């Protein structure tokens, strides 16, 4: 219930970007379901609006499959009240896939544009790439997705799971955002996630790519967390 804001400042190459800075708010792993108190979602919304992001990004596992339609409508309404200068975008995670239903209407009504192996140009300033979850065998390669954007602009990529970081660090992706790990959520599971993923939580720059992995805005399973924090990641980007 203690929502923390984790602030970072980074620099990435400007190239032909028309912006000299951009503030991103990023959350993942909301796992919205009928058991969640609406007040918690309201608090998240208010905290994000206080941040006043230029760009709002959702990193997957936002929706936990089937649920009470009335409650889902209230979630949609609250998320649609998040204000970002250039809009809200998201990717799906493994739990949206486990739900087995078409989640696009939920995201559409919540004002979140889903990127499913697709690229959008934000304010003539950055290429924003959203990858399908690793569960989907025929998802496009990073190289294919990079070829669909503008070569002259910086690149931000969302991938629900922080896998293949070394591979991504060898491309022209400037910034990758992921979730999924929860930083283990409970000790000693954080030691397991740290052994599986090159970066299980936090920020690391590898070659010319900045990687961020959030421990999630909420949790999964038992309602307790002993590792990591419930966080909103805020990244102030300076284009140099």
Q: What are the key terms here?
A:
alpha/beta, 23% helix, 240 residues, 6-stranded mixed β-sheet, 27% strand
Q: How would you summarize what this structure contains?
A:
This protein is an alpha/beta fold.
Describe the structure.
The protein has 240 residues and is α/β, with parallel strands linked by helices. The chain contains seven helices and twelve strands. It has helices at residues 38-51, 69-80, 94-99, 104-109, 142-147, 165-168, 189-196, and strands spanning 3-12, 21-27, 55-58, 88-90, 112-114, 118-122, 126-130, 155-158, 175-178, 202-206, 209-213, 230-239. The strands form two sheets. A six-stranded mixed sheet has the order 1-12-2-3-4-5. The longest helix has 14 residues, at 38-51. It is globular and about 45 Å long.
Topology of this protein?
Elements lengths: L2 E10 L8 E7 L10 H14 L3 E4 L10 H12 L7 E3 L3 H6 L4 H6 L2 E3 L3 E5 L3 E5 L11 H6 L7 E4 L6 H4 L6 E4 L10 H8 L5 E5 L2 E5 L16 E10 L1
Parallel strand pairs: 1-12, 2-3, 3-4, 4-5, 7-8, 8-9, 9-11
Antiparallel strand pairs: 2-12, 6-7, 10-11
């Amino acid at each position: 219930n203690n929502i923390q804001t984790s602030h970072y400042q980074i620099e990435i190459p400007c190239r032909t970007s028309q912006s000299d800075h951009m503030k991103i708010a990023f959350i993942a792993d909301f796992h919205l379901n009928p058991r969640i108190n609406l007040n918690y979602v309201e608090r998240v919304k208010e905290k994000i609006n206080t941040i006043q992001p230029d760009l709002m990004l959702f990193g997957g596992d936002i929706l936990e499959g089937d649920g009470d339609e009335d409650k889902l409508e209230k979630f949609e309404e609250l998320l649609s009240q998040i204000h970002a200068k250039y809009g809200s975008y998201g990717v799906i995670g493994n739990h949206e896939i486990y739900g087995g239903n078409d989640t696009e209407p939920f995201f559409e009504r919540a004002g979140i544009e889903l990127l499913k192996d697709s690229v959008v140009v934000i304010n003539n300033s950055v290429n924003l790439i959203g990858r399908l979850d690793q569960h989907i065998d025929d998802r496009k390669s990073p190289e294919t997705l990079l070829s669909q954007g503008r070569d002259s602009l910086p690149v931000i990529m969302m991938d629900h799971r922080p896998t293949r970081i070394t591979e991504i660090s060898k491309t022209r992706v400037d910034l990758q955002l992921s979730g999924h790990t929860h930083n283990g959520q409970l000790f000693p599971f954080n030691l397991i996630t740290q052994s599986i993923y090159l970066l299980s939580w936090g920020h690391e720059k590898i070659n010319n790519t900045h990687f961020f992995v959030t421990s999630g805005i909420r949790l999964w399973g038992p309602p307790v967390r002993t590792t990591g924090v419930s966080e909103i990641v805020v990244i102030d980007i300076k284009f140099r």
